[in-house]
Amino acid sequence: MLIIAKPGFRQRVARRGYSMFSLAKEAGLAKESVTRLARGRPVRAATARKLCQVLKVEFDEMFEFVEDANGKAPPQFPGGC
Description:
The chain is mostly helical. It contains 5 helices and 2 strands.
């Protein structure tokens, strides 16, 4: 399974006072990782987790799982992000 942002990701981030650049910086990620996510591209579980922590949200508020070609099981987030 792949992790992608839910529709409206960019707007949800903006409502929390972040730009894509400031969110990436705060999370210690490359700006490209965050903009890829905002464009509907998948990210690693570690990236999603860092963003959840910075945004202070639960995983399912911002992200969702979609099937990939391998049919792999989704990573587990004990206690949320």
